[in-house]
């Protein structure tokens, strides 16, 4: 059989001839007739299949793309079609992993995580202190130690500082 076996048809019924790796006969997918395949072609197809399998094991996008090209050149072999599907899934997995890695890099613009953690802790402590301060102002208002105007001003100042802190944190 020649390089164009994929388009060769059965002489009896016109069905597609299918070759399995390791077999020296192609079988019609319609009537089941067997046709002998040149042993040199069988070896060539096996070499293409094995090299594609080897490229798939590299785990790289380039290796999978090259393997897929080779497997598609022997798409009249069912195992090659199955391997091509696996190769496409592996390429999709590699694309997803690459995209995820890019997202991780965007979020981690080289800042030291220890410094970031300290900043987060200080921010939380400041927010707690502001909440306690506001609570203290309200408590003094209830006890009658502050006028209503003084309490409103103190709460507004604390709220503005908290708001500015949160805006600054959101922008960074």
Summary, kept brief:
The chain has 172 residues and is mainly alpha-helical. The chain has helices spanning 39-56, 61-73, 78-107, 113-143, 148-171, and strands at 17-19, 25-28, 34-36. The chain contains 5 helices and 3 strands.
Structural account:
It is a single chain. With 172 residues, the protein is mainly alpha-helical. The chain contains five helices and three strands. Helix 1 packs antiparallel against helix 2 and helix 4 runs antiparallel to helix 5.
First-to-last CA distance:
66 Å
Principal-axes shape call: rod-shaped
Question: What's the overall average pLDDT, rounded?
Answer: 81
**Uncertain regions: pLDDT < 50 for 5+ in a row?**
none
Instruction: Determine Rg (CA atoms, Å).
Output: 35 Å
Total tally of structural domains: 2
Total DSSP E strands: 3
Strand neighbour order, sheet with most strands: 1-2-3
In percent, how much strand structure appears in the residues?
5-15%
Major sheet:
3 strands, antiparallel
SS class: mainly alpha
Counted by DSSP, the helix tally is 5
Order of helices and strands: EEEHHHHH
Helix percentage: 55-70%
List keywords for this structure.
6% strand; 172 residues; 3 strands; three-stranded antiparallel β-sheet; 2 domains
Topology of this structure?
Layout: E1 17-19, E2 25-28, E3 34-36, H1 39-56, H2 61-73, H3 78-107, H4 113-143, H5 148-171
């Amino acid at each position: 059989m020649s390089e164009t076996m994929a388009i060769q048809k059965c002489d009896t019924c016109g069905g597609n001839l299918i070759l399995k790796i390791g077999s020296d006969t192609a079988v019609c997918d319609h009537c089941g007739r067997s046709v002998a395949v040149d042993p040199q072609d069988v070896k060539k197809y096996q070499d293409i299949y094995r090299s594609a399998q080897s490229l798939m094991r590299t785990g790289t996008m380039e290796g999978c793309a090259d393997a897929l090209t080779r497997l598609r050149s022997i798409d009249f072999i069912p195992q090659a079609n199955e391997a091509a599907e696996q190769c496409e899934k592996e390429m999709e997995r590699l694309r997803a992993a690459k995209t995820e890695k890019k997202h991780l890099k965007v979020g981690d613009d080289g800042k030291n995580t220890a410094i970031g953690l300290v900043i987060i802790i200080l921010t939380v402590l400041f927010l707690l202190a502001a909440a306690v301060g506001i609570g203290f102002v309200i408590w003094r208002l209830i006890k009658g130690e502050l006028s209503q105007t003084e309490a409103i001003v103190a709460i507004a100042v604390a709220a503005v500082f908290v708001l500015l802190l949160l805006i600054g944190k959101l922008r960074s």
